[in-house]
Amino acid sequence: MEEKSLVELFPNLFDFEENELVKKSFSYSEKDIEEYEEKIEKESTNYAKTHIVDAENYDDAMSEVKYHFRNGAVWLLCNISKFLELDDDQLYSLLEKAAPFYCKKECEEIYPVPNDISEEEVSSLIEEIYTTFEDGALWAFKLDLF
Q: Domain containing 64: what range?
């Protein structure tokens, strides 16, 4: 039996209109954000600790939350030059389109055991990834670099 990703198993959960600017915004290099790495690491750790009960006992969950938070922050920081002409409403609108795009990209790489995951579980996972990515981007937005 051929393995299928979460996106292939539950395409209805990933049905959204793609935006060309969003699509292009995910082709970036992290070379210009070295100065923020320490801040991102500290904030992603704090974020994970406040969003996971007994975080010190769940290394995998901590790593996942930190990863998605970091990706949201990095996405925004790496795209600042593209976003400078946007007002706050336009930027928030773009973020609302970027988060589901990011979720889909991430879920294309997740291959669960067939019949071992429900649509409800996938919906919860998507919500978690979406929110964490978005919170990372919003944190970076608050750095007042615009």
A: 34-141
Is residue 105 classed exposed, middle or buried when 0-12, 13-18 and 19+ CB atoms within 10 A define those classes?
middle
Q: Which two tokens stand for residue 54?
A: 């007994």
Residue 3 gets which letter from DSSP?
-
> Two tokens at 129?
């990834």
How many Å apart are CA 109 and CA 91, to the nearest integer? 27
pLDDT digits (tens, 9 = 90+) for 104-144: 999 999 999 878 899 999 999 999 999 999 999 999 988 86
Number of domains in the chain: 1
Residue 21 placed within a domain:
no
- Integer CA distances (angstroms), 33 to 74, 91, 97, in order: 8, 20, 23
Residue 82 corresponds to which tokens in the numbers above?
């593209």
- 144 three-class SS: coil
CB-based contacts of 145: which residues, under 8 Å, 6+ apart? 77, 80
**pTM to 2 decimals?**
0.91
